[in-house]
Amino acid sequence: MSTDLFSLKGRTAIVTGANTGLGQGIAIALSQAGANIVAVSRSKPDDTVKAIQASGGKVHVVQASLDTLAPIDDIVAETKRAFGNVDILVNNAGTIRRANALEFSEQDWDAVMSVNLKTAFFLCQACAKEMVAAQRGGKIINIASMLSFQGGIRVASYTASKSGIAGLTKLLANEWAAKGINVNAIAPGYFETNNTDALRKDENRNRDILARIPAGRWGTPDDLGGAAVFLASRASDYVHGTILPVDGGWLAR
Ligand code: NAP
């Protein structure tokens, strides 16, 4: 099998939340496979830019808060201005709020649902319109979660959003596969990022989680690179609507 199957040379990838954590790992991996990167970040993605440029990659930064749909047109326009086309979208930016369901606030519901689900959907829509118009096909990768399959605890809006993104991924695959757009998701297991800081600091939760991961360790952002490159490349041209766990075996338990 030719490794060209996985080459992203000449393709452009928008990665949201590219300044840190999983988004940073994905942006670097896609760049190393040859893609131009549009790093969409609320905070400055200086480390990501440095890492991409150090290995000869091209990156353009769009600073945006994704609480609302307002920046979407600009993200697409900036991508076309910088690199010509929108070929790959990675909907990675996401947030989490923890509270018991009995006390869960509307604010914590809306804050999570708007970024993790609403903005993610409308970014899919905006990018797919470009992909259809350009007739170059396209790849959309949504970042799901173990809580796309399981219930979790004390994270009502997060579970709703990640279960929602899994369903949406399948719906969009159904609608857009025939248009040459692959829509899939990656469901990360438990990774060392800001998102899981609270869990790792809680001795009991940390011990319980580790004991359940067959691989015996938390994931690190570069553990996601292979799955992201696969789903962004020609290698996955006949893969539609899948939610691909990268979880050290968590779901196998
Ligand atoms: P992270 O380090 O907290 O990164 C989250 C990213 O989303 C950051 O870039 C953050 O920007 C951005 N973001 C959050 N709210 C935003 C907003 N309103 N507007 C714009 N950007 C916003 O956590 P992570 O673990 O890498 O999370 C990345 C994705 O993976 C999320 O969708 C998360 O749900 C998912 N995930 C993570 C795990 C895990 O174990 N870590 C497991 C399953 C799924 P700032 O830095 O500016 O806040």
In short:
With 253 residues, the chain is α/β, with parallel strands linked by helices. The protein is built from eight helices and seven strands; from the N terminus they run βαβαβαβαβαβαααβ. It has a single domain, classed as Rossmann fold (3-Layer(aba) Sandwich).
List keywords for this structure.
253 residues; alpha/beta; Rossmann fold; seven-stranded parallel beta sheet; 8 helices; 7 strands; 42% helix; globular; binds NADP nicotinamide-adenine-dinucleotide phosphate
Small molecules bound in the structure, each named once: NADP nicotinamide-adenine-dinucleotide phosphate
Overall shape: it is globular
Q: Can you tell me the CATH class?
A: Alpha Beta
User: In terms of per-residue confidence, which ranges show pLDDT below 50 for 5 or more consecutive residues?
Assistant: none
What is the CATH homologous superfamily assignment?
A: NAD(P)-binding Rossmann-like Domain
- Given the helix and strand composition, which structural class is it? alpha/beta
Helical content (DSSP H or I, runs of 4+): 40-55%
